Amino acid sequence: MTHANHQLAQKFFAALSSGNVPDELLTADMTAWTTTSGTTDKARYQGGIKMLASIFSGGLAYTVDSLTAEEDRVAAEVQSRGTLLNGDVFHNVYVFLIRIRNGRIASVAEHFNPAPVTEKILPLLQVAMSKR
Asked: From edge to edge, which strands make up the β-sheet containing 38-41?
């Protein structure tokens, strides 16, 4: 089980890097929590990932530094890097806690440094959301 959970987590981070987390990785009732947004449902989380990707030139790449899997949980130390559409370089560090049920992700908790998000990402997301 641990090996399968490692593989699922790796697929999840690859999907995050692509800007699209497909339904087949997630349970129907998946929930997410992030440092800046709090708790949200699956559809809103997936939409947020797509919106986030849209403000990067070439995407936001997630790199896994370590994974630890036990029972139904995966803990991951992760970094992200990308260049925003305005040319600013973005970098952040995370700790993700992923809960797995029946081979799919049931919940994600993203703990990260909110300062670079508030400084660099939120202004661009506000512009992107106003265009919708």
From this structure: 38-41, 26-34, 104-112, 89-101, 73-84, 56-70
